[in-house]
Amino acid sequence: MGNTVPMGHSRTHQTRLIMPSDTNHHKSIFGGQVLRYIDEIAALAAMKHSNGEVVTASIDSVDFVSSAYAGDVLELDAVVTSTGRSSMEVYVRVTCLDIKSGAERLTTESFVIMVAVDEEGKPREVAGVYPETETDRRLFETGPMRREYRQMKRQMGPR
Question: What is the four-CA torsion angle of 140, 151, 12, 8, rounded to 10 degrees?
């Protein structure tokens, strides 16, 4: 493609209420439910960036920082932080809001790799990105290190 778009073009936000059916025996949200939300919002951000369909290539990292409980509100934010020819690295940040107290805390951070695909499921090119904010700049500038780490991991592990 050869062109670039601002990171803000892909920025996506979702709000989720944690229901009792979303929780485990500790009364905190299932980690798998959070992963589902992360995958969904990463796909939406990548679809906005690529103007088309995407598939999940990998969930690069997931850091569960704190728990969230029934009645809490999850706020998910996602943005495409770097791109390859057809791949997009999407940063997802999940915070928890206690409605009664107004307290907000980080619960989860993740990097998800999505690939843009055509109607036949074949990878297709995507535009590059450029940062707009200081936070964007930090994520953008550290993207090549994360990409190198992923490549190194692929070479080390059995396939």
Answer: 30
What is the C-alpha separation between 110 and 108, in angstroms, rounded? 7
Q: What is the pLDDT of residues 6-38, one digit of tens each?
A: 999 999 999 999 999 999 999 999 999 999 999
- Domain range for 64 is 4-156
State how many domains the chain has.
1
What CATH code is carried by the domain that includes residue 106? 3.10.129.10
**Which residues, at least 6 apart from 58, have a Cβ–Cβ distance to it below 8 Å?**
112, 113, 150
pTM: 0.92
